[in-house]
Design a protein that fits this description.
- With about 210 residues, this protein is α/β, with parallel strands linked by helices.
- Helices cover about 35% and strands about 20% of the residues.
- The chain has six helices and eight strands.
- It has helices spanning about 15-25, 45-55, 70-80, 100-105, 130-135, 170-195; strands at about 5-10, 35-40, 60, 85-90, 110-115, 140-150, 160-165, 210.
- An eight-stranded mixed β-sheet has the order 3-2-1-4-5-6-7-8, with helices on one face.
- Helix 1 (about 15-25) packs parallel to helix 6 (about 170-195) and helix 5 (about 130-135) crosses helix 6 (about 170-195).
- The two termini are about 30 Å apart.
- It binds 5-O-phosphono-beta-D-ribofuranosylamine.
- The site of 5-O-phosphono-beta-D-ribofuranosylamine (GRF) has 13 residues, from helix 1, strand 5 and helix 6.
- 5-O-phosphono-beta-D-ribofuranosylamine binds near residues 16, 92 and 113.
Length: about 210
């Protein structure tokens, strides 16, 4: 990884993780990092609004705008190249990235997942479904995972995890809120560690941090 992180954030929704990363950069907590671009497949996504409020390039790109997948991939690769991106940070992106893009940015794409992978990941495991499954299974611990992105959902190597207890009486909503608060610390911390060379995207080490 180049020592400077030129980041594209790609997301579909409210953008609270993006906001947390942005604040961490603004406060100097992620050295040599810069948000170059924000991309969303959803034109009304909060993540695009946040980007525009900070005068950052904000691009709406959805498969639906293109006649075929190749044209979509070309457009995505084009915009990432134009902004000299060397790290893609997925933050609530609800689609699978095209395989060609994953190959083009091998070991340069990360994601955050609201559970302790490899459990409670994969297709269909998103949003409240994750927390419902954790509670239904009787797990005593949940948390968040930052992982490298490969061609399978939630499958790439785990870069950083932080655990929290599942409390008696937790509902999916209360658990989701506490996990989200952890995500807002963990994602900037993972980026700091990548920027400082403490972790490498694509390595197989799994540092777990308990609160
Ligand atoms: C987070 O819970 C993240 O773990 C998951 O999608 C959600 C995105 O939330 N991948 P936000 O858009 O960052 O607020």
């Amino acid at each position: 990884m180049d020592s400077h992180l030129d980041i594209a954030v790609i997301g579909s929704g409210r953008g609270s993780n993006f906001q947390a990363i942005l604040s961490a950069i603004d406060h100097g907590r992620i050295p040599r990092a810069c948000i170059r671009l924000v991309v969303s497949n959803n034109s009304t996504a909060g993540i695009l609004e946040i980007a525009r409020d900070h005068a950052l390039p904000a691009v709406h790109l959805s498969q639906k705008q293109f006649p075929d997948e190749q044209a979509f991939v070309d457009a995505l690769l084009g915009v990432l190249g134009e902004h000299d991106v060397n790290l893609i940070v997925l933050a609530g992106y609800m689609k699978q990235l095209p395989a060609q893009l994953v190959r083009a940015y091998k070991n340069r794409i990360i994601n955050i997942h609201p559970a302790l992978l490899p459990k409670f990941g994969g297709q269909g495991m998103y949003g409240m479904h994750v927390h419902e499954a954790v509670i239904a299974s009787g797990e005593k611990v949940s948390g968040a995972s930052v992982h490298a992105v490969d061609e399978e959902y939630d499958h790439g190597s785990i870069l950083l995890q932080r655990t929290i207890p599942v409390l008696p009486g937790d509902t999916p909503e209360t658990l989701a809120a506490r996990v989200l608060a952890v995500e807002h610390q963990l994602y900037p911390e993972a980026l700091r560690m990548i920027a400082e060379g403490e972790i490498t995207v694509g390595s197989r080490e799994v540092p777990v941090q308990a609160l």
